[in-house]
C-alpha cells in the first residue's frame, strides 16, 4: 500500500517538473552571479541543469558570458525565478 502512495507522489512531482521544461529560468547563486537559461532537468539531489545559459556577474562593465549547458548545485542556489505568462501566474494564486 505504501508503494502506491509513493508512486502517486512521484508522478505528481514529475508532472510539476515537466511544466518547467524549456522555460526560461533566472537562478542566483551565493557568490552573486546570475545564470539565465532554459530548464533542462532536475536531479534527485535538487541540482538544476540549464541549457543555452548566460552568466551575468555583478559590477559595472561586465558583459554576459555564454556558457551553454550548466549544472547549478542546490547548496549554491539562493534564488530561482521561472518565466511564465500573466495567466499562469494568476492561476497559481490561492485565495483560501
Layout: helices, strands, pairs:
Elements: H1 2-18, E1 24-29, E2 34-42, E3 48-56, E4 65-72, E5 77-82, H2 86-91
Antiparallel strand pairs: 1-2, 1-5, 2-3, 3-4
Task: Write a structural description.
The protein is of the alpha+beta class. The chain contains two helices and five strands, in the order αβββββα. The chain has helices spanning about 1-20, 85-90; strands at about 25-30, 35-40, 50-55, 65-70, 75-80. Strands 4-3-2-1-5 form a five-stranded antiparallel β-sheet, with no helix packed on it. A hairpin with an 8-residue loop joins strand 3 and strand 4. The model has no long low-confidence stretch (mean pLDDT about 85).
What keywords describe this structure?
alpha+beta, 2 helices, five-stranded antiparallel beta sheet, 24% helix
**Percent helix:** 10-25%
**Structural class of the secondary elements?**
alpha+beta
Strand order of the largest sheet: 4-3-2-1-5
Low-confidence stretches: none
Mean pLDDT: 84
Order of helices and strands: HEEEEEH
Shape verdict: globular
Major β-sheet profile: 5 strands, antiparallel
Indicate the proportion of strand residues: 35-45%
Oligomeric status: single chain
Q: Find the count of extended strands (DSSP E, 2+ residues).
A: 5
Amino acid at each position: 500500500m505504501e508503494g502506491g502512495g509513493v508512486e502517486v507522489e512521484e508522478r505528481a512531482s514529475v508532472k510539476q517538473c515537466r511544466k518547467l521544461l524549456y522555460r526560461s529560468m533566472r537562478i542566483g547563486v551565493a557568490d552573486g552571479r546570475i545564470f539565465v537559461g532554459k530548464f533542462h532537468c532536475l536531479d534527485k539531489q535538487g541540482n538544476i541543469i540549464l541549457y543555452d545559459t548566460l552568466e551575468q556577474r555583478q559590477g559595472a562593465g561586465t558583459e554576459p558570458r555564454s556558457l551553454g549547458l550548466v549544472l547549478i548545485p542546490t547548496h549554491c542556489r539562493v534564488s530561482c525565478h521561472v518565466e511564465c505568462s500573466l495567466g499562469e501566474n494568476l492561476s497559481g494564486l490561492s485565495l483560501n
